Amino acid sequence: MESRDNHPLLIYHTNAKLYGEILSKRLPKLEICSASQPEEAIDLIEEAEIILTWKIPDELLKKAKNLKWFASLGAGNEHLIHNPFIPEYVLFTKVTVYGEMMAEYVFAYLLYFCRDLQKYFLDQRHKIWEQRRPERLRGKVLGILGLGSVGKEIAKRGRQFGMDVLGLKRTPESVENVDQVFGPQDLKKMIPLVNYLIVALPLTPETNHFIGERELSLLKEGTTLINIGRGKTIDERALSKILRTKRIKAVIDVFEEEPLPPESELWDMENVIITPHVSGINLPEEICEEFVKNYEHWVRKEPLLTLVDREKGY
Ligand code: OXD
């Protein structure tokens, strides 16, 4: 009989079966169990050395007595990072493959605005033939808050479009494709310089309401703000207030409360585009590829590639 790697993996997710199928092809010797409901996982979790999941009930997690590696399916893991049932000695990894997809989302909207796509859709409906001068991305200032795996992909594309790219990160060292990197204390210097402000920050105690009324008031008239990180990094009440004045536009994918409650005034604002937390969506093939690379490191006892820094919170 073919030998199996002695590191049982439990996949706990609504799509667990699909993840299981992909991974069993890539890692045929690994013992893989898939569960999409607590009842299915209850008899498996005690054995599991690795758990691949995004959200898992504490009632289950506390039974994971053999857990050695918690492989999160998320990029941001603020909801799990301090979970007492994932103790310090357990390796904790995140997913870093969302960057390209999230950069596509950002540029979909940047191009939508600068090529006036909405107006042309409406013109077509009314059989109107009217040429307008397009705006250019070239020469515009793209500001990116957060230069992790997502921010870096956005910077790369900004550079390709000929934009001036500014970025902000916790430790302001130089980053490829970014013309100037600011530290958090320089947020107020950076904000008035940008035409597009992309917020791709993880949620930590430091970034909670990192952008408030004062910062928003420093945005140039006509700036487009896009939030794809976490809703709570921006004070949503202050954001609604400035949006009401129509000084800026916003594309918002993440909110302080999700789903965005029907009574939120953001739904009805003409200068706001709302999407339901979809800028980076789980693509099992890409995620499994990253898991396999980590797994190969793990069996060789080498450091994993996408470890979460629990001190920093991401
Ligand atoms: C994430 C998400 O993975 O927001 O962090 O979906």
Compose a concise summary of this entry.
The protein is α/β, with parallel strands linked by helices and 314 residues long.
Number of domains: 2
Q: What is the number of E strands?
A: 12
How does the overall form come out from the CA principal axes?
Answer: elongated
For the biggest β-sheet, the strand order reads 8-7-6-9-10-11-12
Which CATH class of the largest domain applies here? Alpha Beta
Poorly predicted parts: none
Largest sheet: 7 strands, parallel
- Please tell me the overall pLDDT: 96
Helix content: 25-40%
Q: Could you give the topology of this structure?
A:
Blueprint: E1 5-12, H1 16-26, E2 30-35, H2 38-41, E3 50-53, H3 58-61, E4 69-72, E5 91-93, H4 99-114, H5 117-125, E6 141-145, H6 149-160, E7 164-168, E8 180-182, H7 187-190, E9 196-199, H8 213-217, E10 224-227, H9 236-244, E11 249-252, E12 272-274, H10 284-299
Parallel strand pairs: 1-2, 1-3, 3-4, 4-5, 6-7, 6-9, 7-8, 9-10, 10-11, 11-12
Helix pairs in contact: 1-10, 4-6
The structure holds oxalic acid (OXD).
Protein described:
With 314 residues, the chain is an alpha/beta fold. It folds into two domains: 5-97 and 283-299, 3-Layer(aba) Sandwich (Rossmann fold), CATH 3.40.50.720; 99-274, NAD(P)-binding Rossmann-like Domain (Rossmann fold, 3-Layer(aba) Sandwich). 29% of the residues lie in helices and 17% in strands. The chain has ten helices and twelve strands. The chain has helices spanning 16-26, 38-41, 58-61, 99-114, 117-125, 149-160, 187-190, 213-217, 236-244, 284-299, and strands at 5-12, 30-35, 50-53, 69-72, 91-93, 141-145, 164-168, 180-182, 196-199, 224-227, 249-252, 272-274. Strands 8-7-6-9-10-11-12 form a seven-stranded parallel sheet, covered by helices on one side. A five-stranded parallel sheet has the order 2-1-3-4-5. Helix 9 links the parallel strand 10 (224-227) and strand 11. Helix 1 crosses helix 10 (284-299) and helix 4 (99-114) packs across helix 6 (149-160). The longest helix is centred in the middle third of the chain and has 16 residues, at 99-114. The mean pLDDT is 96. It binds oxalic acid. Oxalic acid binds at residues 74-76, 280.
